[in-house]
Every structure is written in C-alpha cells, then in structure tokens.
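Folding Query — how this chain folds
Tokens — whole-number codes for backbone shape
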Amino acid sequence: MAETPKKEKPEKKFDLLDEGVATLVRLTILGWSACILTINYLQVPGLAKTNIDPTFIASVFTGTLATFGVATTKKGQGEDGKKTTYTVEYVEKKTKVE
C-alpha cells in the first residue's frame, strides 16, 4: 500500500502580534471596568455621584481576570455566623498537546 503524505500545518506568521493585540484588548477592558467600579464607590470632586448597578461591570471585571488565570473563591458559610473569606487564586491554563 502507498503511504499517505503527511500534511504540514500552516505556519502562523503573526502569532506574536495576535497575542499582543489580544492581551492589550483584555487589559483595556480590565482597566475600564476597574475605573467604572472605582468611580461608582468613590466621590470624585467635580463629578456628580451616580448610583449604577455594578453587577454587570463586576462580572466583566471578574470575567476578564479569569482570562488571565485569576479566579476568586468563597469559603465559609456566612448564614451560621461564620466568617466568609474570599480568596484569589491563580489557575494555570491548560495547553493543548497536539
């Protein structure tokens, strides 16, 4: 039987550029959401205090942090009088093995 030729994978020419742009976009979103959350809780002189629902912005913030491998966990019961502790852990990304 004849052997089938192995197909070569196409070479990624702009991998470094793509990763740099993706990281820059994620950092921009992270900074934007952090600024919005900070402004929501602080009184900035010269700006009227607005009360917005920070739920969406907080979810964008934590979702963007998760793309960098940072995850938050909640420990403790809270209901029975125990102290609730929040921890931030680094979660190592799994790489695909081909």
Remarks:
- The chain has one domain: 16-90.
- The longest strand covers residues 70-75.
